Amino acid sequence: MDDIDELDMREAQLRIKLYDEYRDAARMFNYYVETELRAYLANEVEVEPVVAGGGAYFKVALTDVWIYEAERLNRFVPEVIVYSVNDVHVQKLKEEA
Fold first, then answer.
1. Confidence of residue 43 (pLDDT cuts 50, 70, 90)
2. Mean pLDDT, to the nearest integer, of 41-67?
């Protein structure tokens, strides 16, 4: 196996581990939020459209957050504020009965 194959295998293992962590973490959160750059799980979400300087953007405030990003050492954070000029998707996760 050459170095490229080993790197590809390592990246695939990290993606599987991240997905497994996401699947487990999703049970603890109320919302799934997706922006152009990344995805989040959060318990509170506030999306504020802002019109300024002839354009518009979204200010998205998230509380009690898990960030879907493999390179992060700490994916659980208390607060995230995202600014996006593109679409922001917010999905309410189904509550378990």
1. very high
2. 95
A 10 A CB-CB count for 72 gives 13
Region label for 17, one of left (φ > 0), alpha (ψ between -120 and 50) or beta (otherwise): alpha
Element (H, E) at 8: helix 3-25
Question: In order of start, what are the domains of the chain with their CATH numbers?
Answer: 3-92 (2.30.30)
- Please report the pLDDT score of residue 96 as a whole number: 61
Specify the pTM: 0.82
- Kindly state the greatest CA–CA separation across the chain: 55
Side-chain half-sphere exposure of 27, counting CA atoms within 13 A: 6
